[in-house]
Amino acid sequence: MSNPVTITLPDGRSWTPKFVHAINEEKCIGCGRCFRVCGRDVLQLKGVNEDGEYVEVALDDDDDDGEYEKKVMTIANQMNCVGCEACAKICPKKCYDHEVMEAG
């Protein structure tokens, strides 16, 4: 039987945070909306080249100059996630998978 971590909010309601677990790169369009709503440095936009390898992407660079085929969001610092799920709420392609933390 699972025992998820639950938090009691100041108004007495309980909340069970769900932490980012995975991003479906097949669905991801690299729009960056999730990156902009996450203030915890959890996510990082990467390019994927024709060999399927990650390539660094300059966030202020609008031209793709042929180094990558598409952009995808990746999880760079999973331990920074606070479980707010803002990334999943704003994602137009519903790429995110979140999980609750089990009490130890």
Shape: elongated
Output the number of helix runs: 2
Q: Report the average pLDDT across residues.
A: 91
User: How many runs of DSSP E, i.e. beta strands?
Assistant: 7
Instruction: Find the structural class using helix and strand composition.
Output: mainly beta
Give the fraction of residues assigned to helices: under 10%
Series of H and E elements: EEEHEEEHE
Explained architecture:
The chain has 104 residues and is mostly beta strands. Helices cover 10% and strands 29% of the residues. The chain contains 2 helices and 7 strands. The protein has helices spanning 33-37, 86-90, and strands spanning 7-8, 14-15, 18-23, 43-48, 54-56, 70-75, 96-100. A 3-stranded antiparallel β-sheet has the order 5-4-6, with no helix packed on it. The protein has a two-stranded antiparallel ribbon with strand order 1-2. A two-stranded antiparallel ribbon has the order 3-7. A hairpin with a 5-residue loop joins strand 4 and strand 5 (54-56).
In short:
The protein is mainly beta and 104 residues long. Helices cover 10% and strands 29% of the residues.
Main attributes of the structure:
single chain, 104 residues, mainly beta, 3-stranded antiparallel sheet, two-stranded antiparallel ribbon, 29% strand
Helices and strands in order:
Layout: E1 7-8, E2 14-15, E3 18-23, H1 33-37, E4 43-48, E5 54-56, E6 70-75, H2 86-90, E7 96-100
Antiparallel strand pairs: 1-2, 3-7, 4-5, 4-6
